[in-house]
């Protein structure tokens, strides 16, 4: 039976025909190595020659950089063929909530005005009482109350002398330059009208009070340690295992009666988390996420231990209407005022409609004495100055800034958005949406 292995000489290659004609294996290997060396040397020599020319004529470098623009995800991005448009029911709910929020704001403004009027009346009463208390001595001098008032005025004059003569509120407002509003970056995505988008984002309010979260599990959950880990990354979260009697709308009603603002349901299967449901109380909407690549903090090498401080929140690359609604949901899960003393930061980065969750802490390390005067420049622009572009910030102070991961880390993907508490599907991800790899929905 003839062998099926082709003969080496039968290989048809136009670029390296001479290589395949060499029968000796060792000579063929050495020939390939020398060929790669000559190619790399030619490239290196071309770079040196180009650098010499660009040093003599800097305009050549500018022209080269303008032509060699790298292709990124944003530059290749195409518009969604079927953009998301809110349903009539969703817009009615949004308008109703906007009216309720306006009523609450108006009531608060009226209360503030009443308090200001009461405080003004009290100040007038105090002034009239002080005028009545002014008495003159037998020699025609003023009483001690007037001297005290003069002392207070002198103190005010001393405090005012600490500032410049231009510290008048009118002059300062007129002299301060007005900051120009930053222009939004042009996007290829079809955007909703501003009024519609504002009404849609009003579905998720952001009160000044910190949110109160309730985390529960699936029926007959086994890995309670995973739920405890999830409860640590969201401040002010209470974990209660779920029983077998109550449904999700019933649990949402119980949580609303106990003044919870969000209901989180982590889904478990085969002793691992695979989903996350977030419900905004009391009346929705409901967000369904798939959860993958969950790694506990113990599985991260060189991790730190998180503290009870409120972290900062970074939301990156949420550009479409449904993406901005999702970002607004994550923003409502964290208190509006972080505690910078803890140096903790939560990052939710959206890339190709996958949301990556990371939990870090800022770490400040002192620079050794022998390296304090050395500047490595900027990684992105190649600048020689310290701190240009934010890559070397703090090195001029003798401190180097880094990040230490605390964990956990996982990946989310938005699967479905429902009106109310599991009442009707508003938006749903389907498999056909990935037919174009350059089309993103968040």
From TrEMBL:
Q: Which residues form the Brix domain?
A: 211-423
Region annotation Disordered: where it falls in the sequence: 1-31, 100-191
GO terms of biological process kind: maturation of 5.8S rRNA; maturation of LSU-rRNA
Give this protein's Gene Ontology molecular function annotations.
Answer: rRNA primary transcript binding
Name the residue ranges with Low complexity bias.
10-19
Q: Where is the composition biased (Polar residues)?
A: 135-147
Biased composition, class Acidic residues, residue ranges: 107-124, 149-169
Cellular component terms per the entry's GO annotation: nucleolus; preribosome, large subunit precursor
Q: Where is the composition biased (Basic and acidic residues)?
A: 125-134
Coiled-coil regions, chain positions: none
The name this protein goes by in its record:
Brix domain-containing protein
Species of provenance = Arthrobotrys flagrans (Nematode-trapping fungus)
């Amino acid at each position: 039976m003839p062998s099926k292995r082709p003969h080496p000489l039968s290989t048809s290659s136009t670029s390296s025909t001479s290589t395949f004609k060499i029968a000796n294996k060792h000579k063929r290997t050495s020939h390939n190595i020398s060929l790669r060396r000559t190619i790399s040397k030619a490239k290196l020599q071309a770079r040196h020659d180009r650098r010499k020319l660009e040093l003599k004529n800097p305009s050549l470098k500018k022209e080269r950089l303008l032509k060699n623009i790298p292709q990124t995800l944003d530059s290749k991005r195409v518009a969604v063929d079927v953009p998301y448009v809110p349903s009539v029911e969703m817009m009615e709910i949004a308008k109703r909530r906007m009216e309720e929020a306006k009523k609450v704001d108006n009531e608060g403004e009226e209360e503030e005005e009443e308090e200001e009027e009461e405080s003004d009346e009290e100040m007038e009463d105090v002034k009239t009482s002080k005028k009545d208390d002014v008495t003159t001595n037998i020699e025609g001098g003023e009483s001690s109350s007037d001297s005290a008032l003069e002392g207070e005025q002198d103190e005010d004059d001393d405090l005012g002398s600490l500032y410049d003569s231009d510290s008048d509120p009118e002059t300062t407002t007129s002299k301060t330059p007005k900051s120009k509003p930053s222009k939004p970056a042009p996007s290829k995505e079809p955007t909703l009208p501003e009024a519609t988008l504002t009404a849609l984002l009003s579905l998720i309010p952001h009160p000044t009070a910190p949110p109160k979260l309730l985390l529960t599990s699936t029926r007959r959950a086994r890995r309670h340690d995973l739920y405890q880990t999830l409860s640590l990354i969201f401040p002010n979260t209470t974990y209660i295992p779920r029983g077998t009697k109550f449904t999700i709308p019933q649990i949402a009603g119980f949580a609303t009666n106990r003044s919870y603002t969000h209901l989180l349901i982590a889904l478990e299967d085969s002793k691992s988390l695979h989903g996350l449901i977030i419900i905004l109380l009391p009346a929705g909407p409901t967000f369904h996420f798939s959860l993958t690549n969950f790694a506990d903090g113990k599985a991260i090498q060189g991790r730190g231990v998180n503290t009870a401080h409120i972290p900062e929140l970074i939301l990156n690359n949420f550009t479409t209407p449904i993406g901005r609604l999702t970002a607004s949901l994550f923003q409502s899960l964290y208190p509006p005022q972080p505690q910078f003393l803890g140096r903790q930061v939560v990052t939710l980065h959206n890339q190709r409609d996958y949301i990556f969750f990371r939990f870090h802490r800022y770490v400040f390390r002192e620079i050794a004495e022998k390296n304090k005067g050395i500047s490595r420049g900027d990684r992105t622009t190649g600048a020689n100055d310290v701190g240009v572009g934010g890559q070397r910030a703090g090195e001029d102070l003798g401190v180097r800034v880094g990040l230490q991961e605390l964990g956990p880390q996982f990946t989310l993907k938005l699967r479905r958005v429902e009106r109310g508490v599991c009442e009707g599907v508003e938006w749903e991800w389907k498999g056909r949406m990935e037919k174009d790899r350059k089309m993103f929905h968040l």
